[in-house]
Write a structure and sequence with these properties.
mainly alpha; 4 helices
């Protein structure tokens, strides 16, 4: 008679082990320092949040302007060059905008 055997991959066992590790308190996990309880300056946190919201709005506006400029450039370019502009140009623009946004957001966090 055939017996049923449960087969699991090593990744499943690791995932299950991680899930049980995640249930333990944070300060008892290996390699993690205990969380220090520090008072939160709510005024500084609100100022940082407002500054980051303004930064996000400026980044979205810059993205919109950059994509509009790329569409205009693609429209003005002839044939395959227009497609090349649409295909290749947005990625460096997105990379630069993302890098500038992250740098400024980190500066806001470090100033707070």
């Amino acid at each position: 008679m055939n017996q049923r055997v449960r087969v699991t991959s090593p990744q499943t066992r690791l995932a299950l082990r991680r899930r049980t590790d995640a249930m333990r308190p944070l300060n008892r996990r290996a390699g993690r320092p205990p969380i220090a309880s520090t008072p939160i300056d709510m005024d500084a946190a609100e100022r940082a949040l407002k500054r980051q919201r303004r930064l996000a709005l400026r980044t979205v506006l810059a993205l919109g302007l950059a994509l509009a400029a790329l569409l205009l450039a693609a429209d003005l370019a002839s044939g395959r060059l227009g497609w090349a502009v649409l295909f290749f140009a947005p990625y460096p623009v997105l990379l630069v905008l993302a890098a500038v946004h992250v740098r400024r957001a980190e500066r806001i966090e470090s100033d707070s």
